[in-house]
Specification:
- This protein has 211 residues and is of the alpha/beta class.
- 57% of the residues lie in helices and 14% in strands.
- The protein has a 5-stranded parallel beta sheet with strand order 2-1-3-6-7, with helices on both faces. Strands 4-5 form a two-stranded antiparallel ribbon.
- A hairpin with a 2-residue loop joins strand 4 and strand 5.
- Helix 8 crosses helix 11.
Length: 211
């Protein structure tokens, strides 16, 4: 079976691809909407809700029109109910980031069992999986913070970034100025020797959340 992955964060897409190939899937991993629109013949697709500033939901609608019998999984850090509702209307399973290896593996197995015709959320027990994802992410985040001597504010910034908030939203959420936010990010990156987006990508990649 063939899986299409559309995610502009390369380490995340690569981690998804490794897991899927380990289950015997062939994988096409792309980072641009324009490229994804040309894809055909896939049995399932994982689509980020935001791909380099373009709408993953619009891409989803296009892909479904071309491959209506495929199964679709939409990933996002955006908590708005409207996003989930739109994804559901398009016949996709919707999951909040970060997503763990166990969740992805079970979704792919359900797709295989259903012949690539779509997966109902109730069959996956997604409420339980989301709780599992959050617990493992928090565990990894706290371990990362302790290893690098990060402050509670640094941890908050990583957590909020992982949930899809931009820098302005994070500054507002933490009641700090953008300048203060930038200073915290600078110190965070200096202490961990890693860029913020790379930290988030590594903490949310499925190969790091595997059991």
């Amino acid at each position: 079976m063939k899986l299409l992955i559309v995610d502009d964060v390369k380490p995340t897409g690569q981690a998804f691809a490794r897991l899927a190939r380990g289950l015997g899937w062939s994988v096409s991993c792309v980072t641009r909407v324009k490229t994804a629109r040309r894809e055909r013949g896939f049995d399932a697709a994982i689509v980020d809700v935001n791909v380099q500033g373009e709408s993953g939901l619009e891409l989803l609608a296009h892909l479904r029109s071309k491959e209506p019998r495929a199964a679709y999984l939409v990933l996002t850090g955006d908590p708005r109910v409207s996003i989930a509702a739109h994804a559901a209307q398009l016949g996709a399973t919707y999951l909040r980031k970060p997503i763990g290896a166990r969740t992805l593996r079970l979704w792919l197995m359900e797709v295989e069992a259903g012949g690539g015709r779509g997966v109902q959320e109730r069959a996956l027990g997604l409420d339980e999986m989301e709780t599992w994802q959050k617990q493992h992410f928090e565990q990894l985040l706290l371990e990362f913070g302790a290893t690098h001597g990060l402050s509670e504010r640094h941890i908050d910034i990583i957590r909020l970034t992982a949930h899809g908030l931009n820098r302005s939203e994070i500054a507002e959420k933490l009641d700090i100025t953008l300048a203060t936010y930038q200073k915290h990010v600078g110190r965070l990156q200096k202490r961990s020797h890693t860029k913020l987006q790379r930290i988030v990508s590594e903490l949310t990649s499925p190969h790091l959340l595997d059991e």
